[in-house]
Amino acid sequence: MPAIIALTVYALLPILRNTYTGIMNVEKPIKEAGIGMGMTGMQVMWRIELPLALNVIMAGIRTATVMVIGVATLASLVGAGGLGDLIFRGISTVNTELILAGTIPAALLALLLDFLLERMERAVTPPGLRPVGRKRTNRFVRVVEIALGVLLVAAIATSLLGRGGIGFGGSGGGKTITVGGKNFTEQDILVHMLSSLIEAKTDLKVVRKPFLGGSQVTHSALTSGSIDLYPEYTGTGWSSVLGEAPVGGDPQATYDKVKAAYETRFSVTWLPPFGFNNTYTLSMRADAADRLGIDTMSQLAARSSGLTLGATHEFLEREDGFKGLQAAYGMHFKKVTGLDPGLTYGAVKEGTTDVNDAFSTDGRIQAFKLKALKDDKQFFPPYYAAVVIRDDTLKAHPELEETLNLLAGKIDDKTMSALNGKVDLERKEPRAVAEQWLKDQGLM
């Protein structure tokens, strides 16, 4: 509902502006004629000004409609889904087909609504104000056009309100489980891996919601009940979600701390880790790193004033990301650019940027001939991945714990990197990659 309110406010400017312009442009003698016939000010507005300004007002509504359709695709960034999902998944995986699958329907929807509103505008415009030479529309057709426009608006409003507005939606409930994930390839694979395993081992139905957004968006979806579970990382949970100071050290100690804190603060359970540590790192082209003599982050810091960093927006804002890294190593890059997660590696490969934030299990590090720099001060905490699940979901479906624990310790760094590479480099579907791995392990 807040998103609907925001979109409504956003759309008001062209409507109000055109309404004001249309009324102010009604010629003064016409209004004076109405007053001379004994009309009150309100009657002049309703019977003279608004009818004469109606075509200008409708033009504002058409403009607002097209604007809102375009802006609504951005709602995918906060987990709202829709066509924006396809667009941003395509950007993240550099998949032109997905981008077109989202943008073309959005453009067609905008054109369709604009056409229908244009027909509605024509129908409500007084005959005397229609362009000369336009064929007069009979009364029945005018009524049909107006009715279609009203029904279209009502249908869209009903659909949005039925979903509870533009937002996450609700978790499954009953015999349905909702599995969410963040907005990058590894999470996409894990969402399908968890979902397919649940469907194979239980009688539960699964709603899959990959690419919800960043860590805070996905965590909020979990605690609000919009999803039942998702894959999280111990370091992210400790620093980004709990707000604790990032510390390196014993992975088991970090897991125990974050597990206890989640149980106390959020009534959320951490299941045993999958086995891989997808820690943050910084990477750069191997030839450039060798030329500059950079192997560690301390060496990078010494040369950072002449280099450009291209990193995800989330990394730039996290205390266990760029903010903390600056304090720990004293890095001061010549330029810092925020990029979509799917573009950071390609930017370094092509030389657009010199350094990017990377995940240690990302297959593109090796494929693009990049060099992951050593965190010689051990700034980054361990980022072991595990399922986080709401306690009430486990209570309602206790079989989930045994099922999901089948993945505990089964995926090491090398395996996860290979799975990521199949999607990012070989352009395979995440679901197909996840399910093939489950079959290879005898879990499906």
Evaluate the radius of gyration. Answer: 28 Å
End-to-end distance, in Å? 40 Å
| Largest sheet features | 5 strands, mixed
Strand segment tally: 10
**SSE class:** alpha/beta
Strand content: 5-15%
Give the rounded overall mean pLDDT: 85
Number of helices: 20
Order of helices and strands: HHHHHHEHEHEHHEEHHEHHEHEHEEHHHH
- Characterize the overall form: elongated
How would you describe what is shown here?
- With 444 residues, this protein is α/β, with parallel strands linked by helices.
- It is built from 20 helices and 10 strands.
- The protein has helices spanning 2-24, 28-36, 41-72, 83-92, 96-124, 139-162, 185-201, 215-223, 234-241, 251-266, 286-292, 297-303, 313-317, 322-329, 344-350, 364-367, 391-396, 399-404, 413-424, 430-440, and strands at 176-180, 205-209, 229-233, 268-270, 280-285, 308-312, 335-339, 355-359, 370-372, 385-390.
- The strands form 3 sheets. Strands 7-6-8-5-9 form a 5-stranded mixed sheet. A 3-stranded antiparallel sheet has the order 3-10-4. A two-stranded parallel ribbon has the order 1-2.
- Helix 3 (41-72) runs antiparallel to helix 5 and helix 7 (185-201) packs across helix 20.
- The longest helix is centred in the first third of the chain and has 32 residues, at 41-72.
- The two termini are 40 Å apart.
- GO terms for molecular function: transmembrane transporter activity.
- It is a multi-pass membrane protein.
- Residues 1-117 form the ABC transmembrane type-1 domain.
- InterPro entries: ABC_Gly_betaine_transp_sub-bd, ABC_transp_perm/SBD, MetI-like, MetI-like_sf.
- It comes from Cohnella rhizosphaerae.
